[in-house]
What does this fold into?
Amino acid sequence: MRDVVGAGVVRRAPWLAPAGVAAVALGGCIAVAVLDPAARAEVSPGCPFRALTGLDCPGCGGTRALYALTQGQFATSVSHNLLLWLVTPLLLVAWGSWLLTTLGRRDAVWQPGPHVAWTLAWATIGFWVLRNVPVGPLAWLASGT
Amino acid sequence: MSGPTGAGGGPAPGWYPDPEAPGSGRQRWWDGTTWTSNYHPPAGQGSTPGYAAQPYAAQGYGGGYAQPVKVDPWLWQSIVATLLCCLPAGVVGIIFASKSQSAAAVGDIVGAQQAAKTAKTWTLVAVFAALLAIVGYIVFIVAVGATAFWA
It folds into this structure.
């Protein structure tokens, strides 16, 4: 298998990039599981958007959702950040296809079509708006305390 | 008109050697069903600098001598940046990444590359602004801590 990247450019060990991303992500997960940064509000930086506006951003509650997941509290995790649960499976598939591609599996290339991309874009914007509406069931979308 | 060969199990949409100009190196957009009127000059003429450097450019050889062009729309990067950096710039990145996907789906490679470039810019703005906020926060904490220590 040729590892041709561009005109005459051969990249050595192209799988190092996805492996590095996985290592950083895994390190982050372990750090969150061990440190529980949300419980140390006096030292963790928190969300800049929330600090400025008092509103939830699409990522707010992500750290708490991840921590709850590492503790096996699935319902709590989903209620902290629903979007994370929708996006993470897609991210895992995209990462897997990226890894296989760098290993020479040209048939493994997966890129979401425009429909998936636009769905994600509108889901993010919709989630951002709706989770800041403190009415009835929509309040469940907020990152919580 | 027959489709491109060698793409394996039903040719996927992509750039393939133009069957009407064999040997010229010219590429033509195959939309998955039929040939469109979108053409791409032979590789190596330098008309679209940078497209050959895309990491996805090397997959799925159409006719054995030319490569279909793939544009990295920066969709995943912008989504991760939005979730981790908590800044509106990340959402702008997702929108331009989606525009890039839409352009690529109809064979508009130049449009896809432009939108992807804009998505990349906004994603990096979100990342660097968040890094700046974190560094500023750490400086603030250290300064407050030092003040409290000396008080």
Remarks:
- The longest helix of chain A spans residues 82-102.
- Chain A touches chain B at residues 2-7, 9, 14, 43, 45, 47-50, 57-60, 62, 83-84, 87, 91, 94, 101, 106-107, 109, 111-114, 116-118, 120-121, 124-125, 128 (CB under 8 Å).
- Helices of chain A lie at 16-35, 48-53, 62-70, 74-80, 82-102, 114-130.
- The CA atoms of residues 32 and 67 of chain A lie 6 Å apart.
